[in-house]
Prior knowledge:
The protein is about 60% helix and about 0% strand. By secondary structure, it is mostly helical.
Amino acid sequence: MALVLYSLVVLWFDRGGHERLRIPERPWYRRKREPSFQDRVSTLRRLSWEEKIGEVVGVSGPQQKWVAEVTELMARVG
């Protein structure tokens, strides 16, 4: 099951998820060029949370900054 889920995440990322990638500032990885699997999963989580929260709150308007910060935090928590 793990191999199937890993493959699905990698395929999703290669087909279009890479366009929405945000790698956080990591001082210990200054020369890092390629996203790790955790970066890919975090991107998928963030986009999923943005979609779910956008249905309830809306992603435009005065709360846009708050929504972006909350979704980024939830994506990184794991």
